[in-house]
Specification:
This protein has 498 residues and is an alpha+beta fold. It has helices at 2-58, 77-91, 115-126, 155-163, 190-193, 197-239, 244-251, 276-281, 285-305, 330-357, 393-404, 414-420, 478-494; strands at residues 63-64, 74-75, 95-100, 133-139, 142-152, 177-188, 261-273, 309-314, 317-322, 366-381, 386-391, 410-412, 424-428, 444-449, 458-463, 466-471. The chain is rod-shaped and about 165 Å long.
Length: 498
Protein backbone atom coordinates (compact mmCIF):
# COMPACT_ATOMS: atom_id res chain seq x y z
CA UNK A 1 0.00 0.00 0.00
CA UNK A 2 2.81 2.37 0.93
CA UNK A 3 4.56 1.61 -2.36
CA UNK A 4 1.36 2.31 -4.31
CA UNK A 5 0.86 5.66 -2.55
CA UNK A 6 4.51 6.58 -3.16
CA UNK A 7 4.17 5.72 -6.86
CA UNK A 8 1.06 7.91 -7.12
CA UNK A 9 2.77 10.80 -5.33
CA UNK A 10 5.79 10.55 -7.62
CA UNK A 11 3.76 9.86 -10.76
CA UNK A 12 1.48 12.90 -10.51
CA UNK A 13 4.31 15.48 -10.38
CA UNK A 14 6.11 13.67 -13.21
CA UNK A 15 2.97 13.77 -15.34
CA UNK A 16 2.56 17.46 -14.52
CA UNK A 17 6.22 18.06 -15.36
CA UNK A 18 5.88 16.45 -18.79
CA UNK A 19 2.69 18.42 -19.43
CA UNK A 20 4.47 21.60 -18.37
CA UNK A 21 7.33 20.84 -20.77
CA UNK A 22 4.91 20.24 -23.62
CA UNK A 23 3.04 23.42 -22.74
CA UNK A 24 6.29 25.42 -22.66
CA UNK A 25 7.40 23.97 -26.00
CA UNK A 26 4.05 24.73 -27.60
CA UNK A 27 4.07 28.24 -26.16
CA UNK A 28 7.51 29.27 -27.31
CA UNK A 29 7.03 27.60 -30.69
CA UNK A 30 3.92 29.67 -31.12
CA UNK A 31 5.85 32.79 -30.07
CA UNK A 32 8.61 32.04 -32.56
CA UNK A 33 6.07 31.52 -35.33
CA UNK A 34 4.26 34.76 -34.57
CA UNK A 35 7.48 36.76 -34.27
CA UNK A 36 8.78 35.32 -37.52
CA UNK A 37 5.56 36.35 -39.23
CA UNK A 38 5.74 39.86 -37.76
CA UNK A 39 9.38 40.42 -38.68
CA UNK A 40 8.85 39.00 -42.17
CA UNK A 41 5.96 41.43 -42.57
CA UNK A 42 8.14 44.32 -41.38
CA UNK A 43 10.93 43.37 -43.78
CA UNK A 44 8.50 42.98 -46.69
CA UNK A 45 6.88 46.30 -45.86
CA UNK A 46 10.29 48.00 -45.72
CA UNK A 47 11.36 46.43 -49.00
CA UNK A 48 8.15 47.15 -50.90
CA UNK A 49 7.01 50.48 -49.50
CA UNK A 50 10.33 52.12 -48.72
CA UNK A 51 13.22 50.65 -50.64
CA UNK A 52 11.31 50.16 -53.89
CA UNK A 53 9.94 53.72 -53.74
CA UNK A 54 13.40 55.18 -53.10
CA UNK A 55 14.89 53.12 -55.90
CA UNK A 56 12.17 54.22 -58.27
CA UNK A 57 12.73 57.87 -57.48
CA UNK A 58 16.49 58.13 -56.92
CA UNK A 59 18.08 54.91 -58.19
CA UNK A 60 20.71 53.12 -56.10
CA UNK A 61 22.40 56.24 -54.77
CA UNK A 62 20.54 56.25 -51.52
CA UNK A 63 20.00 52.44 -51.06
CA UNK A 64 23.27 50.87 -49.94
CA UNK A 65 24.69 48.40 -47.45
CA UNK A 66 26.93 51.24 -46.17
CA UNK A 67 24.12 53.69 -45.67
CA UNK A 68 25.76 55.28 -42.63
CA UNK A 69 28.56 56.58 -44.84
CA UNK A 70 26.12 58.32 -47.23
CA UNK A 71 24.06 61.26 -46.00
CA UNK A 72 20.38 60.49 -46.55
CA UNK A 73 21.16 56.83 -47.37
CA UNK A 74 18.97 53.97 -46.27
CA UNK A 75 19.99 50.30 -45.79
CA UNK A 76 19.19 47.64 -48.28
CA UNK A 77 16.57 45.09 -47.01
CA UNK A 78 19.20 42.55 -45.93
CA UNK A 79 21.13 45.21 -44.00
CA UNK A 80 17.87 46.46 -42.50
CA UNK A 81 17.16 42.90 -41.33
CA UNK A 82 20.62 42.66 -39.73
CA UNK A 83 20.15 45.97 -37.97
CA UNK A 84 16.73 44.82 -36.80
CA UNK A 85 18.32 41.65 -35.39
CA UNK A 86 20.76 43.79 -33.37
CA UNK A 87 17.94 45.87 -31.99
CA UNK A 88 16.03 42.76 -30.99
CA UNK A 89 19.09 41.15 -29.36
CA UNK A 90 19.82 44.28 -27.33
CA UNK A 91 16.31 44.57 -25.91
CA UNK A 92 15.18 40.94 -25.45
CA UNK A 93 16.83 38.42 -23.12
CA UNK A 94 14.69 35.49 -24.25
CA UNK A 95 14.38 36.26 -27.96
CA UNK A 96 16.99 36.40 -30.73
CA UNK A 97 16.53 37.18 -34.41
CA UNK A 98 19.05 36.20 -37.04
CA UNK A 99 19.17 37.07 -40.74
CA UNK A 100 22.06 35.03 -42.09
CA UNK A 101 23.50 33.89 -45.40
CA UNK A 102 26.58 32.24 -46.76
CA UNK A 103 27.04 35.38 -48.91
CA UNK A 104 27.20 38.43 -46.59
CA UNK A 105 27.98 41.86 -48.10
CA UNK A 106 31.54 43.16 -47.82
CA UNK A 107 32.09 44.86 -44.49
CA UNK A 108 29.54 42.59 -42.77
CA UNK A 109 31.00 40.03 -40.39
CA UNK A 110 30.06 36.48 -41.51
CA UNK A 111 27.88 34.45 -39.19
CA UNK A 112 29.27 31.03 -38.11
CA UNK A 113 26.60 28.47 -38.98
CA UNK A 114 25.91 25.71 -36.46
CA UNK A 115 24.88 22.17 -37.40
CA UNK A 116 21.14 22.88 -37.25
CA UNK A 117 21.44 26.06 -39.34
CA UNK A 118 23.57 24.33 -41.98
CA UNK A 119 21.13 21.44 -42.15
CA UNK A 120 18.12 23.77 -42.31
CA UNK A 121 19.64 25.95 -45.06
CA UNK A 122 20.64 22.93 -47.16
CA UNK A 123 17.14 21.48 -46.80
CA UNK A 124 15.44 24.74 -47.72
CA UNK A 125 17.71 25.28 -50.73
CA UNK A 126 16.52 21.92 -52.04
CA UNK A 127 12.85 22.70 -51.31
CA UNK A 128 12.34 26.45 -50.83
CA UNK A 129 8.60 26.19 -50.38
CA UNK A 130 8.51 23.30 -47.91
CA UNK A 131 7.81 25.72 -45.09
CA UNK A 132 9.51 26.60 -41.78
CA UNK A 133 11.76 24.23 -39.84
CA UNK A 134 12.02 24.08 -36.08
CA UNK A 135 14.22 22.47 -33.43
CA UNK A 136 13.42 22.13 -29.71
CA UNK A 137 16.17 21.54 -27.10
CA UNK A 138 16.28 21.38 -23.33
CA UNK A 139 19.07 22.60 -21.12
CA UNK A 140 18.25 21.90 -17.50
CA UNK A 141 15.10 23.83 -16.67
CA UNK A 142 15.24 25.92 -19.85
CA UNK A 143 13.57 25.17 -23.16
CA UNK A 144 14.75 26.62 -26.47
CA UNK A 145 13.02 26.69 -29.87
CA UNK A 146 14.83 27.56 -33.09
CA UNK A 147 12.38 28.50 -35.88
CA UNK A 148 13.78 28.88 -39.40
CA UNK A 149 12.13 30.26 -42.54
CA UNK A 150 13.77 30.68 -45.97
CA UNK A 151 14.71 34.08 -47.43
CA UNK A 152 13.38 33.90 -50.99
CA UNK A 153 15.11 36.23 -53.43
CA UNK A 154 12.48 38.46 -55.09
CA UNK A 155 13.05 40.39 -58.32
CA UNK A 156 13.97 43.60 -56.48
CA UNK A 157 16.42 41.77 -54.21
CA UNK A 158 18.02 40.06 -57.21
CA UNK A 159 18.49 43.38 -58.99
CA UNK A 160 19.96 45.02 -55.90
CA UNK A 161 22.35 42.20 -55.03
CA UNK A 162 23.52 41.60 -58.55
CA UNK A 163 24.18 45.31 -59.05
CA UNK A 164 25.87 46.06 -55.73
CA UNK A 165 29.71 46.18 -55.80
CA UNK A 166 29.68 44.84 -52.19
CA UNK A 167 27.73 41.70 -53.04
CA UNK A 168 29.94 38.55 -53.14
CA UNK A 169 27.44 36.85 -55.46
CA UNK A 170 26.02 38.59 -58.53
CA UNK A 171 24.22 35.85 -60.35
CA UNK A 172 21.15 35.59 -58.18
CA UNK A 173 17.89 34.49 -59.76
CA UNK A 174 14.38 35.15 -58.51
CA UNK A 175 13.06 32.29 -56.33
CA UNK A 176 16.46 31.21 -55.02
CA UNK A 177 17.04 30.87 -51.25
CA UNK A 178 19.48 33.59 -50.28
CA UNK A 179 19.68 32.65 -46.62
CA UNK A 180 17.52 31.95 -43.60
CA UNK A 181 15.62 33.96 -41.08
CA UNK A 182 15.95 32.35 -37.65
CA UNK A 183 13.94 33.04 -34.50
CA UNK A 184 15.44 31.69 -31.25
CA UNK A 185 13.13 31.76 -28.25
CA UNK A 186 14.50 30.66 -24.86
CA UNK A 187 12.21 30.32 -21.90
CA UNK A 188 12.71 28.82 -18.44
CA UNK A 189 9.99 26.41 -17.37
CA UNK A 190 9.60 28.49 -14.23
CA UNK A 191 7.84 31.14 -16.34
CA UNK A 192 4.89 28.79 -16.71
CA UNK A 193 4.90 27.32 -13.24
CA UNK A 194 2.96 30.29 -11.94
CA UNK A 195 0.10 29.28 -14.21
CA UNK A 196 -0.09 26.00 -12.31
CA UNK A 197 -0.10 27.49 -8.82
CA UNK A 198 -3.41 25.94 -7.81
CA UNK A 199 -2.31 22.59 -9.18
CA UNK A 200 0.98 22.94 -7.30
CA UNK A 201 -0.88 23.75 -4.11
CA UNK A 202 -2.98 20.65 -4.71
CA UNK A 203 0.16 18.55 -5.26
CA UNK A 204 1.70 19.85 -2.05
CA UNK A 205 -1.50 19.10 -0.15
CA UNK A 206 -1.71 15.67 -1.77
CA UNK A 207 1.93 14.95 -0.95
CA UNK A 208 1.42 15.93 2.69
CA UNK A 209 -1.69 13.79 2.82
CA UNK A 210 0.00 10.87 1.05
CA UNK A 211 3.15 10.89 3.16
CA UNK A 212 0.97 11.26 6.23
CA UNK A 213 -0.99 8.21 5.12
CA UNK A 214 2.25 6.30 4.53
CA UNK A 215 3.53 7.28 7.97
CA UNK A 216 0.22 6.26 9.55
CA UNK A 217 0.19 3.00 7.62
CA UNK A 218 3.78 2.22 8.66
CA UNK A 219 2.94 3.04 12.23
CA UNK A 220 -0.11 0.79 12.12
CA UNK A 221 1.93 -1.96 10.44
CA UNK A 222 4.53 -1.68 13.18
CA UNK A 223 1.84 -1.90 15.84
CA UNK A 224 0.24 -4.85 14.04
CA UNK A 225 3.62 -6.62 13.89
CA UNK A 226 4.18 -5.92 17.57
CA UNK A 227 0.67 -7.17 18.35
CA UNK A 228 1.20 -10.25 16.19
CA UNK A 229 4.51 -10.95 17.92
CA UNK A 230 2.83 -10.54 21.29
CA UNK A 231 -0.12 -12.72 20.28
CA UNK A 232 2.23 -15.31 18.81
CA UNK A 233 4.14 -15.39 22.08
CA UNK A 234 0.93 -15.67 24.08
CA UNK A 235 -0.52 -18.34 21.80
CA UNK A 236 2.77 -20.26 21.99
CA UNK A 237 2.54 -20.19 25.76
CA UNK A 238 -1.14 -21.17 25.68
CA UNK A 239 -0.28 -24.13 23.44
CA UNK A 240 1.73 -25.60 26.31
CA UNK A 241 -1.45 -25.95 28.36
CA UNK A 242 -3.63 -27.73 25.81
CA UNK A 243 -3.18 -30.55 23.34
CA UNK A 244 -1.70 -29.47 19.97
CA UNK A 245 -4.73 -30.87 18.13
CA UNK A 246 -7.13 -28.82 20.27
CA UNK A 247 -4.90 -25.76 19.96
CA UNK A 248 -4.79 -26.01 16.18
CA UNK A 249 -8.52 -26.68 15.98
CA UNK A 250 -9.37 -23.62 18.10
CA UNK A 251 -6.94 -21.20 16.45
CA UNK A 252 -7.91 -22.32 12.95
CA UNK A 253 -11.57 -21.60 13.76
CA UNK A 254 -12.75 -25.19 13.33
CA UNK A 255 -13.68 -25.49 17.03
CA UNK A 256 -15.95 -23.05 18.86
CA UNK A 257 -14.92 -22.00 22.37
CA UNK A 258 -18.51 -22.05 23.61
CA UNK A 259 -19.89 -24.63 26.00
CA UNK A 260 -20.58 -27.24 23.35
CA UNK A 261 -20.06 -31.00 23.37
CA UNK A 262 -20.49 -33.90 20.96
CA UNK A 263 -20.93 -37.63 21.38
CA UNK A 264 -18.21 -39.63 19.64
CA UNK A 265 -16.71 -43.08 19.71
CA UNK A 266 -13.23 -42.74 21.17
CA UNK A 267 -10.39 -44.95 22.30
CA UNK A 268 -9.33 -43.81 25.77
CA UNK A 269 -5.95 -44.39 27.37
CA UNK A 270 -5.32 -44.03 31.10
CA UNK A 271 -1.97 -44.61 32.86
CA UNK A 272 -0.83 -44.39 36.45
CA UNK A 273 2.50 -44.84 38.22
CA UNK A 274 2.50 -47.76 40.67
CA UNK A 275 3.38 -46.75 44.25
CA UNK A 276 4.08 -43.18 43.21
CA UNK A 277 3.48 -41.90 46.72
CA UNK A 278 6.09 -44.17 48.29
CA UNK A 279 8.55 -43.39 45.48
CA UNK A 280 8.06 -39.64 45.92
CA UNK A 281 8.74 -39.94 49.66
CA UNK A 282 12.18 -41.35 48.88
CA UNK A 283 13.17 -38.45 46.63
CA UNK A 284 13.89 -34.80 47.24
CA UNK A 285 11.19 -32.46 45.82
CA UNK A 286 13.59 -31.02 43.25
CA UNK A 287 14.66 -34.47 42.12
CA UNK A 288 11.07 -35.66 41.96
CA UNK A 289 10.08 -32.65 39.85
CA UNK A 290 12.89 -33.31 37.34
CA UNK A 291 12.04 -37.01 37.20
CA UNK A 292 8.30 -36.48 36.77
CA UNK A 293 8.74 -33.76 34.12
CA UNK A 294 11.08 -35.98 32.14
CA UNK A 295 8.56 -38.82 32.36
CA UNK A 296 5.69 -36.61 31.17
CA UNK A 297 7.85 -35.15 28.38
CA UNK A 298 8.83 -38.56 27.05
CA UNK A 299 5.30 -39.95 27.27
CA UNK A 300 3.78 -36.84 25.68
CA UNK A 301 6.19 -37.02 22.74
CA UNK A 302 5.16 -40.61 22.10
CA UNK A 303 1.45 -39.78 22.42
CA UNK A 304 1.71 -36.91 19.95
CA UNK A 305 3.78 -39.05 17.61
CA UNK A 306 0.91 -41.54 17.38
CA UNK A 307 -1.70 -38.79 16.95
CA UNK A 308 -3.21 -38.92 20.43
CA UNK A 309 -4.99 -35.98 22.05
CA UNK A 310 -3.50 -35.38 25.49
CA UNK A 311 -6.44 -34.56 27.75
CA UNK A 312 -4.71 -33.87 31.05
CA UNK A 313 -2.17 -34.84 33.64
CA UNK A 314 -3.83 -35.71 36.96
CA UNK A 315 -1.08 -36.01 39.52
CA UNK A 316 1.05 -38.79 38.09
CA UNK A 317 -1.74 -40.07 35.78
CA UNK A 318 -2.03 -39.39 32.05
CA UNK A 319 -5.30 -39.30 30.08
CA UNK A 320 -5.06 -39.52 26.29
CA UNK A 321 -7.83 -40.18 23.76
CA UNK A 322 -7.99 -40.94 20.03
CA UNK A 323 -10.83 -40.02 17.64
CA UNK A 324 -11.22 -36.30 18.35
CA UNK A 325 -10.82 -33.63 17.08
CA UNK A 326 -9.72 -35.76 14.12
CA UNK A 327 -10.31 -39.44 13.57
CA UNK A 328 -8.69 -41.92 11.21
CA UNK A 329 -11.46 -44.45 11.79
CA UNK A 330 -12.35 -46.62 14.81
CA UNK A 331 -9.87 -49.41 14.03
CA UNK A 332 -7.00 -47.07 13.18
CA UNK A 333 -7.63 -44.97 16.31
CA UNK A 334 -7.65 -48.09 18.53
CA UNK A 335 -4.56 -49.51 16.87
CA UNK A 336 -2.65 -46.22 17.25
CA UNK A 337 -3.59 -46.10 20.94
CA UNK A 338 -2.38 -49.66 21.67
CA UNK A 339 0.84 -49.14 19.70
CA UNK A 340 1.37 -45.91 21.65
CA UNK A 341 1.00 -47.78 24.97
CA UNK A 342 3.47 -50.47 23.87
CA UNK A 343 5.94 -47.77 22.79
CA UNK A 344 5.51 -46.04 26.17
CA UNK A 345 6.27 -49.24 28.09
CA UNK A 346 9.33 -49.90 25.93
CA UNK A 347 10.59 -46.36 26.53
CA UNK A 348 9.98 -46.72 30.27
CA UNK A 349 12.25 -49.74 30.37
CA UNK A 350 15.03 -47.61 28.88
CA UNK A 351 14.29 -44.69 31.21
CA UNK A 352 14.28 -46.92 34.30
CA UNK A 353 17.68 -48.34 33.39
CA UNK A 354 19.07 -44.81 32.99
CA UNK A 355 17.45 -43.54 36.16
CA UNK A 356 18.87 -46.44 38.17
CA UNK A 357 22.32 -45.64 36.80
CA UNK A 358 22.11 -42.15 38.35
CA UNK A 359 20.97 -43.37 41.74
CA UNK A 360 17.18 -43.68 41.55
CA UNK A 361 16.59 -46.92 43.45
CA UNK A 362 12.90 -47.37 42.66
CA UNK A 363 12.03 -45.62 39.37
CA UNK A 364 8.58 -45.53 37.84
CA UNK A 365 6.59 -48.63 36.96
CA UNK A 366 3.42 -47.76 35.09
CA UNK A 367 0.05 -49.46 34.68
CA UNK A 368 -2.01 -48.73 31.59
CA UNK A 369 -5.66 -49.24 30.66
CA UNK A 370 -7.38 -48.77 27.29
CA UNK A 371 -11.06 -48.83 26.33
CA UNK A 372 -13.10 -47.98 23.22
CA UNK A 373 -16.62 -46.56 23.49
CA UNK A 374 -18.89 -43.54 23.19
CA UNK A 375 -18.12 -40.46 25.29
CA UNK A 376 -19.18 -36.85 25.45
CA UNK A 377 -16.28 -34.71 24.23
CA UNK A 378 -16.03 -30.92 24.11
CA UNK A 379 -15.89 -27.86 26.33
CA UNK A 380 -17.02 -28.39 29.92
CA UNK A 381 -17.04 -25.80 32.68
CA UNK A 382 -18.32 -22.22 32.82
CA UNK A 383 -18.28 -19.28 30.43
CA UNK A 384 -15.28 -17.89 32.36
CA UNK A 385 -13.30 -21.11 32.70
CA UNK A 386 -13.69 -24.25 30.62
CA UNK A 387 -11.81 -27.42 29.83
CA UNK A 388 -11.80 -29.48 26.63
CA UNK A 389 -12.17 -33.02 27.94
CA UNK A 390 -14.20 -36.25 27.82
CA UNK A 391 -16.91 -37.48 30.17
CA UNK A 392 -18.66 -40.83 30.28
CA UNK A 393 -18.71 -44.33 31.69
CA UNK A 394 -16.35 -45.55 28.95
CA UNK A 395 -13.66 -43.14 30.17
CA UNK A 396 -14.20 -44.45 33.72
CA UNK A 397 -13.75 -48.01 32.40
CA UNK A 398 -10.32 -47.12 30.99
CA UNK A 399 -9.32 -45.82 34.42
CA UNK A 400 -10.63 -49.02 36.06
CA UNK A 401 -8.74 -51.27 33.62
CA UNK A 402 -5.60 -49.39 34.57
CA UNK A 403 -6.12 -50.25 38.25
CA UNK A 404 -6.25 -54.02 37.59
CA UNK A 405 -3.15 -53.98 35.39
CA UNK A 406 0.15 -55.13 36.84
CA UNK A 407 3.03 -52.63 36.73
CA UNK A 408 4.60 -52.61 33.28
CA UNK A 409 1.53 -54.11 31.57
CA UNK A 410 -1.36 -52.92 29.40
CA UNK A 411 -4.96 -54.06 29.92
CA UNK A 412 -7.60 -53.37 27.27
CA UNK A 413 -11.34 -53.91 27.04
CA UNK A 414 -12.84 -56.46 24.65
CA UNK A 415 -14.13 -53.59 22.48
CA UNK A 416 -10.56 -52.39 21.99
CA UNK A 417 -9.11 -55.89 21.58
CA UNK A 418 -11.66 -56.67 18.87
CA UNK A 419 -10.37 -53.71 16.84
CA UNK A 420 -6.64 -54.54 17.23
CA UNK A 421 -6.59 -58.35 17.46
CA UNK A 422 -4.98 -58.63 14.02
CA UNK A 423 -1.95 -56.64 15.21
CA UNK A 424 -1.33 -57.62 18.89
CA UNK A 425 -1.38 -60.75 21.04
CA UNK A 426 -3.56 -60.60 24.14
CA UNK A 427 -5.25 -63.05 26.51
CA UNK A 428 -8.40 -62.67 28.54
CA UNK A 429 -8.40 -62.04 32.30
CA UNK A 430 -11.14 -62.68 34.80
CA UNK A 431 -14.34 -60.70 34.12
CA UNK A 432 -15.00 -57.61 36.26
CA UNK A 433 -17.88 -55.35 37.13
CA UNK A 434 -17.58 -51.61 36.73
CA UNK A 435 -19.88 -49.03 38.29
CA UNK A 436 -21.97 -47.29 35.63
CA UNK A 437 -21.65 -50.15 33.12
CA UNK A 438 -24.38 -52.77 33.22
CA UNK A 439 -22.51 -55.42 31.28
CA UNK A 440 -19.79 -57.66 32.58
CA UNK A 441 -16.42 -56.52 31.30
CA UNK A 442 -13.80 -58.98 30.12
CA UNK A 443 -10.32 -57.42 30.29
CA UNK A 444 -7.47 -58.49 27.98
CA UNK A 445 -3.81 -58.34 28.87
CA UNK A 446 -1.69 -57.28 25.91
CA UNK A 447 1.21 -59.68 25.40
CA UNK A 448 2.93 -57.91 22.49
CA UNK A 449 2.98 -57.29 18.77
CA UNK A 450 2.02 -59.83 16.15
CA UNK A 451 3.76 -57.86 13.42
CA UNK A 452 3.68 -54.30 14.62
CA UNK A 453 5.99 -51.29 14.34
CA UNK A 454 8.99 -50.77 16.59
CA UNK A 455 8.89 -54.40 17.81
CA UNK A 456 11.70 -55.02 20.35
CA UNK A 457 12.54 -57.77 22.77
CA UNK A 458 13.47 -56.21 26.10
CA UNK A 459 13.86 -57.81 29.52
CA UNK A 460 14.08 -55.69 32.64
CA UNK A 461 13.70 -56.22 36.37
CA UNK A 462 14.74 -54.60 39.59
CA UNK A 463 14.36 -56.36 42.89
CA UNK A 464 16.41 -57.44 45.85
CA UNK A 465 19.71 -58.58 44.49
CA UNK A 466 18.57 -58.00 40.88
CA UNK A 467 19.49 -55.14 38.58
CA UNK A 468 18.67 -56.51 35.12
CA UNK A 469 18.14 -54.88 31.71
CA UNK A 470 18.56 -56.63 28.38
CA UNK A 471 17.63 -55.25 24.95
CA UNK A 472 18.12 -58.22 22.66
CA UNK A 473 17.95 -56.13 19.46
CA UNK A 474 20.65 -53.78 20.69
CA UNK A 475 23.17 -56.46 21.66
CA UNK A 476 26.36 -56.19 19.58
CA UNK A 477 28.08 -59.38 20.85
CA UNK A 478 25.42 -62.06 21.47
CA UNK A 479 27.97 -64.76 22.39
CA UNK A 480 29.48 -62.64 25.16
CA UNK A 481 26.01 -61.90 26.59
CA UNK A 482 25.08 -65.59 26.36
CA UNK A 483 28.22 -66.57 28.31
CA UNK A 484 27.42 -63.98 30.98
CA UNK A 485 23.84 -65.26 31.36
CA UNK A 486 24.97 -68.89 31.54
CA UNK A 487 27.47 -67.98 34.24
CA UNK A 488 24.72 -66.21 36.16
CA UNK A 489 22.45 -69.26 35.89
CA UNK A 490 25.20 -71.57 37.19
CA UNK A 491 25.73 -69.23 40.10
CA UNK A 492 22.01 -69.35 40.91
CA UNK A 493 22.00 -73.14 40.70
CA UNK A 494 24.98 -73.41 43.00
CA UNK A 495 23.65 -70.90 45.52
CA UNK A 496 23.45 -72.28 49.03
CA UNK A 497 19.95 -72.39 50.53
CA UNK A 498 19.26 -69.63 53.08
Amino acid sequence: MALLVAMVLVGLPLAAWFDLRDLTNAGITRQATNLSTVITGIRDFYSSNIVDRVLAANGHAYVTAHYLEHPGGIPIPSKFSLELANVVANNQATFQYRFISHYPFQGTAPHPFNAFENSALASLEQSPHRGPLSNVTWNGMTSQVRFVTPIIMEAGCVACHNASPDSPKRDWRPGEVGGIQEMIVTEPVAYNIGGFRYLLIYFVFLAILGFGAIALQRRQSRKIREANTFLSSISSQISKYISPQIYESIFSGRTDVGLKTARKKLTIFFSDIKDFTSTSEQLQPEQLTILLNEYFTEMSAIALGYGGTIDKFVGDAILVFFGDPESRGESEDALACVFMALAMQARLVELNARWRSVGIENPFRVRMGINTGYCNVGNFGSTERMDYTIIGAEANLAARLQTIAEPGTIVVSYETFALVRSAVHAHALAPIRVKGISREVVPYLVDGYIDGPEQRTVFSDHAGGVEFYLDVDAVEDPQAVRSLLEEALRALDERRPL
